[in-house]
Design goal:
Blueprint: E1 6-15, H1 23-44, E2 53-56, E3 59-65, H2 70-89, E4 100-111, E5 118-120, H3 122-131, H4 134-142, E6 148-153, H5 154-159, E7 174-180, E8 185-192, H6 198-203, E9 250-253, E10 263-265, E11 273-276, E12 289-291, E13 295-297, E14 303-306, E15 312-316
Parallel strand pairs: 4-6, 9-11, 10-12
Antiparallel strand pairs: 1-3, 1-4, 2-3, 4-5, 6-8, 7-8, 12-13, 14-15
Helix pairs in contact: 1-2
Length: 321
């Protein structure tokens, strides 16, 4: 095998608070996770095309061959891990449970020709940063009945989740800001906790603070001031948008290109068309926004979408008509 990079899906997992309680407890949890991973990986890998695994922290890093559909990992394999963990935890006290932080990213990486382990690449960096992120840790603390919490990269969300293959529901994922300031990492990711609604995730306040641009450190908003631009209603007054745009029927678009779709916000509304998330000061967004009943709102330069709780969750930049 040459040293060229190859597409792989990386799954990083770490056991919540596994080190507390001494070596015996730590060993039981690690062995329990290894057995669960043995069973899950055996259900999906094929002869001659294994999923290489290596210990990583208090968990494992799993490298999935690039020809395995990513939707099977995010939908089917994650569901199998939930089943395995619930079975393991069924007769355990809280101290004996395995609860996992799980992060998934896909990209081109270099791999060891003998072991298949990843050696380097942006995807390897990203998946480790996501697994160690504050929102993911907070999710397991906030929802103790969940056997795992999953975070996926922004790229994976838009490339896979939004298309709903294998029953994936983009409306079950909450956007969060992942920041490791000392490592220069600042990205949007998407959080999912099985059995927990996005309303509960949003109410839990799992985001890590103001959304900041990766290069300037300024809050995403007006390029000159860093202040979010207010959306306006039909009369020209500022309006705070309440509720969450449902993912049903929506195409979530990443950080490239003009957007001319339509979005609807409100307790029971459904997004129709193209909704832009991310930072792209050069992009243009010309969509009318329907807020609740018949009121409409337009985005000015670098608008910020706010929920009823006042937190900024989606940033849509461009110039309004």
């Amino acid at each position: 095998m040459d040293d060229l990079s190859r597409p792989r899906t990386l799954i990083a997992m770490d056991i919540r608070k596994s080190s507390a309680g001494g070596h015996a407890r730590h060993g039981r949890l690690i062995r329990g996770l290894q057995r669960a991973n043995d069973r899950v990986c055996a259900r999906f890998q094929t002869p001659g095309n294994p999923w290489p695994r290596r210990p990583s922290g208090d968990g494992e890093l799993i490298t999935v061959p690039g020809d395995v559909p990513k939707a099977r990992i995010l939908a089917d394999a994650v569901r199998e891990w939930c089943i395995e963990l619930r079975a393991f935890n069924e007769d355990k006290s809280e101290d004996g449970e395995i609860r996992l932080r799980v992060a998934v990213e896909h990209g081109d990486i270099t791999v060891d020709p003998d072991s298949g382990f990843p050696l380097g690449g942006d995807a390897l960096v990203t998946v480790n940063r996501l697994c160690e992120s504050a929102p993911l840790r907070a999710a397991l603390d906030r929802f103790p009945a969940a056997p795992l919490a999953l975070v996926v990269s922004d790229r994976l969300f838009h490339d896979v989740v939004v298309y709903r293959e294998r029953g994936l529901d983009p409306g079950a994922f909450e956007p969060v800001r992942v920041r490791h300031d000392h490592k220069g990492f600042n990205e949007i990711a998407w959080l999912h906790v099985p059995g927990v609604s996005v309303a509960e995730l949003a109410a839990a306040g799992l985001d890590t603070g103001p959304a900041t641009g990766p290069d300037t450190g300024e809050e995403i908003g007006d390029p000159g001031t860093g202040q979010p631009a207010a959306a306006t209603d039909a009369s020209g007054g500022a309006r705070q948008r309440s509720g969450r745009a449902s993912a049903g029927g929506a195409r979530y678009q990443r950080n490239e290109g003009p957007n001319h779709g339509q979005a609807t916000y409100g307790d029971h509304s459904i997004a129709a068309g193209t909704v832009y998330f991310g930072q792209a000061p050069s992009s243009h967004y010309h969509a009318p926004i329907h807020v609740g009943g018949n009121a409409s709102a337009t985005f000015g330069p670098a608008s910020t979408v706010r929920r009823g709780d006042g937190r900024d969750h989606r940033h849509e930049t461009g110039s309004g008509d």
